[in-house]
Design goal:
Blueprint: E1 2-6, E2 9-13, E3 16-18, E4 20-24, E5 27-32, H1 34-41, E6 53-57, E7 62-65, E8 67-72, H2 74-80, H3 92-105, E9 114-119, H4 134-137, E10 146-150, E11 155-158, H5 160-166, E12 178-182, E13 188-194, H6 195-201, H7 209-225, E14 228-233, H8 246-255, E15 262-265, E16 267-268, H9 272-280, E17 302-303, E18 307-310, H10 340-353, E19 357-361, H11 364-376, E20 388-391, H12 397-405, E21 409-412, H13 417-427, H14 430-433, H15 439-444, E22 449-451, H16 462-471, H17 491-498, H18 500-505, E23 523-526, E24 543-548, E25 551-555
Parallel strand pairs: 1-6, 2-7, 8-14, 9-10, 14-15, 15-17, 16-18, 18-19, 19-20, 20-21, 21-22
Antiparallel strand pairs: 1-4, 2-3, 4-5, 7-23, 10-11, 11-13, 12-13, 23-24, 24-25
């Protein structure tokens, strides 16, 4: 297939723009002026189409590289679209009422239990600003297990029925890397954190392959409408997608030609032994997917990626590992989801097999211990496997220096700022808060920093994320001038972080993330010029066309 995009404002790299793009067999073959590219395609002034080419008049609109979310959870997002919506509830009572209505409307979806994700006590505007307990969720139902996950995914609330089904009404076990919070009499309160959440979520029957594929397609449709052409997702390894058939869930979609965007796996395992088995005789032993599963054209749509680890929790749940504790809980230093010795084992196995490692790290203590493990497994003393930190929120100057000096990748979520900026000011001293969410500083100092959303923790709409990176304000555009505005970046830097730098995470920066000859034809045509509009309106931008590998996957 051959396509010409002309009459556009094509972003090439900082300070460089073109007018037109020539695409052949899913690859960009040339960029330049309208005259140059139309001539290459053989389009004359009085002809709409060249022989064998489709020409698309972009009507002066801005064209950017396809956006690439460097860390999210696509399956969870797709499943969330099929569940009760609780990410915008104003109070515990609002959540209870929303869930009751959902049960009444969709009884078949909750016959074996109800699960939803999204509540956030820090954003409640009515009633008590606290975490819901089993007593609250019992008002939703006492007949089925009800599990309501906090927006961060590191804490959940369960009703009494769920506690009884787990057997925790008789004996409460110790769960390494997790916590079951108790009432005064020793009975579980219904609040679970970190690794304990995995145990509770197993009460809800896992979706079968067809259900998983339907959820993935729903998530993909939303993603391409919002300009995503690649995602790097941690799905495999969660209870809803593990074991036999997990990887086939994805490869079958691509083999059938149904998938809409490029997908790179970030893989979670229960133990170093399971990880090594995957590398020696499982899917990882193949190094990638067979050519038949790569989807459309000759360039890969589906690839295996890094080992994913969890080191700590979240700020909202007060489970992120922090060196000096929390102001509202000085004796609380967070939760370690994996001990250093076990992380060392994972990293050693990864190094032996040439596998990248990316780790969920929010607190400064979590990052320090993770970097210790990474450095022990460096090859020739260097980060040649491009190990990375996902989130990287609580940093001081020494930690920033270490990340830059050791060339550690950062997979950041500027979109977290909207909900975390107020929380940080409550739980940390000003001198620490000033060096947190230091995504501008890291980029200015030359770190490889990419953007993701951790969806469904946040919406995967990349323009909301870019808006936060550029403006650093909440939904009401506060504070005026931005939250520590020295960390703001310009639009070109933000787009590069979402495209070229995300491709760097995948070792694909030579073929993805730019609109240049030899790169994959992954492009997005915008309804607004993101480079000249009021920066505070960036969040409202939407694509009018999304193209992956030269194939239009969305058109308004």
């Amino acid at each position: 297939m051959k396509t010409v995009l002309f009459n556009g404002k094509v972003y090439v790299e900082k300070g460089v723009f073109a007018q037109a793009v020539l695409i052949e067999d899913g690859i960009i073959s040339a960029i330049g002026t309208d005259e140059e590219i139309l001539a290459k395609a053989g389009v004359s002034d009085d002809a709409d189409e060249a022989d064998g080419y489709e020409s698309i008049d972009c009507e002066g609109r801005t064209i950017i590289p396809g956006l690439n979310d460097s860390h999210m959870h696509l399956l969870s997002f797709g499943r969330t679209l099929q569940k009760a919506k609780i990410d915008d509830v104003k109070s515990i009572d609002h959540m209870i009422e929303r869930c009751r209505q959902f049960i009444e409307k969709y009884p078949d979806r909750v016959s074996n239990g109800m699960h939803a994700l999204g509540w956030n006590q820090d954003t409640f505007t009515e009633g008590e600003k606290r975490m819901p307990t089993r007593h609250d969720l019992d008002k939703i139902s006492t007949d089925i297990p009800v599990i309501m996950e906090r927006v961060c995914g590191h804490m959940l609330s369960a009703n009494t029925k769920a506690i009884e089904l787990l057997g925790y009404d008789k004996e409460v076990p110790e769960i390494p890397g997790g916590e079951i919070r108790l009432e005064e009499d020793g009975f579980p309160s219904g609040i679970f954190t970190e690794n304990a959440c995995f145990v509770v979520n197993e009460l809800i029957p896992t979706p079968d392959k067809a259900e998983r594929q339907a959820a993935l397609l729903e998530g993909m449709k939303y993603a391409v409408v919002h300009g995503l052409t690649s995602i790097q997702a941690n799905d495999v390894g969660y209870p809803e997608c593990k074991g036999a058939g997990a990887f086939e869930t994805y490869s079958e979609l691509y083999e059938r030609g149904e998938a809409l965007l490029r997908f790179r796996h970030q893989n979670l395992f229960d133990s170093p032994e399971e990880f090594e088995e995957y590398l020696v005789s499982g899917e990882g032993a193949k190094g990638s997917y067979p050519e038949s599963a790569l989807g459309f054209g000759k360039d890969p749509w589906l690839t295996l990626g890094p080992l994913k680890l969890y080191k700590d929790g979240s700020l909202g749940a007060r489970t992120a590992m922090v060196k000096d504790g929390y102001l509202d809980g000085p004796d609380n230093f967070g939760v370690s989801c994996i001990e250093p010795e076990e992380m060392d084992r994972y990293c050693k196995i990864a190094a032996e097999h040439g596998i990248q490692v990316v780790t969920h790290t929010i607190g400064d203590l979590a990052m320090t211990e993770t970097l210790d493990s990474y450095e022990k497994a460096f090859i020739d003393g260097e980060n040649k496997l491009r190990h990375g930190l996902i989130h990287c929120q609580v940093t001081d100057n020494d930690l920033i220096d270490r990340i830059v000096d050791k060339d550690i990748l950062v997979m950041a979520q500027p979109i977290f700022m909207g909900s975390d900026m107020d929380v940080m000011q409550q739980i940390f001293k000003d001198e620490l808060t000033e060096t947190c969410l230091a995504f501008g500083t890291l980029l200015k100092r030359g770190a490889h920093l990419s953007y993701g959303t951790d969806c469904p923790v946040e919406d995967c709409n990349p323009f909301w994320n870019i808006h936060q990176a550029v403006n650093r304000v909440d939904i009401n555009n506060k504070p005026e001038g931005g939250f520590y505005p020295k960390e703001c970046v310009d639009v070109e830097t933000a787009i590069d972080a979402y495209t070229y730098e995300s491709a760097y995470c995948e070792f694909m920066e030579d073929v993805k993330g730019r609109i240049k000859p030899g790169y994959y034809a992954d492009v997005v045509v915008l309804d607004t010029d993101i480079f000249t509009c009021d920066p505070l309106t960036i969040k409202d931008i939407l694509p009018v066309m999304t193209m992956v590998g030269g194939r239009v996957v969305y058109e308004k």
